[in-house]
Design brief:
Helices cover 27% and strands 34% of the residues. It is built from 5 helices and 10 strands; from the N terminus they run H-H-H-H-H-E-E-E-E-E-E-E-E-E-E. Helix 2 crosses helix 4.
């Protein structure tokens, strides 16, 4: 069985498991995630390989991380993510990217990301669920963090925290690549 087949089957099993645990019908989850009921049926029957954007929406709606939805290994409390298994969510031809390094449920989804933005590039995020908190630590260059329309400059060596339930953008308005580590904590779904 290929890695893609394992991930498709794990996603099917985990979406159904978390939907059932939350007491959501297919229609409820579809409405919360902004994904069609038909797509959810195909996902739960392991008949499709949805985009990462769709998986993110479903994870947010269920209150679990992408890592949890795609996890097919059951076992010890320590989980090592080899460099070759880091999930790249997006990238540009210029060299910008974001990579999901690790994730856990603690008590809601908790994710750690590695970001690189080339000069002049940026990435916008829709609001996350109420109570979401993000932490950033810039390791190179300078981040222009826009939260709810207000710009904040975060230079190398500095960190910032903010509520992620409003529109926000990460941008590099400088002349050198900007690199940061980002942690996202989403509250559990009740």
């Amino acid at each position: 069985m290929s890695d893609l087949d394992l991930l498709t089957q794990s996603l099917a099993r985990n979406v159904k498991r978390w939907r059932t645990e939350r007491g959501f019908t297919l229609d409820t989850l579809a409405a919360r995630a902004g994904v069609s009921r038909g797509m959810l049926i195909q996902i739960e029957q392991a008949r499709t390989n949805p985009s990462l954007g769709t998986v993110v929406k479903i994870g947010d709606a269920l209150g679990v991380s992408i890592t949890t939805l795609l996890d097919y290994e059951q076992g010890p409390k320590v989980r090592i993510v080899p460099a070759g298994q880091v999930v790249r969510l997006w990238h540009t031809d210029a060299g910008s990217y974001s990579r999901l390094l690790a994730g856990a449920e603690a008590p809601g989804p908790l994710e750690m990301w590695d970001w690189r933005l080339m000069p002049g590039e940026g990435s916008s995020s829709d609001p996350h669920p109420t109570g979401t908190v993000e932490l950033v630590h810039v390791t190179a260059g300078e981040l222009t963090l826009t939260v709810d329309g207000a710009d904040h400059r975060v230079p190398a060596g500095a960190s910032a925290s903010f509520e992620g339930d409003t529109p926000h953008t990460y941008a590099n308005q400088g002349d050198v690549p900007m690199e940061m580590v980002l942690a996202v904590s989403v509250p559990p779904v009740h």
